[in-house]
Amino acid sequence: xxxxxxxxxxxxxxxxxxxxxxxxxxxxxxxxxxxxxxxxxxxxxxxxxxxxxxxxxxxxxxxxxxxxxxxxxxxxxxxxxxxxxxxxxxxxxxxxxxxxxxxxxxxxxxxxxxxxxxxx
Length: 120
Prior knowledge:
By secondary structure, the protein is mainly β. It has strands at about 5, 10-15, 20-25, 35-40, 45-50, 60, 70-75, 80-85, 90-100, 110, 115-120.
């Protein structure tokens, strides 16, 4: 079983930055493609960014391109999401997820989420 734990959320002003972390345990981290998703109140969950098993390929939602950076450190079993130029529209619960297939595939394992709130 794969366990995922997010951290790093919080309250930040418009234009600010945050870095989210996701620590994975239970299985070999490098066997999994990883992704960040978010869900705002009353909205469906959406993909924010994804990264391949080696970190060689990354993908971003259009809404965050140029502002967010996804990365991973396989030696530390950790994935990151560096968020800059934050906007109130980025307010959501952010989830990390893992799947053993590909970054653009269906995700099987999920963390509990971390709240990001951007004040105007």
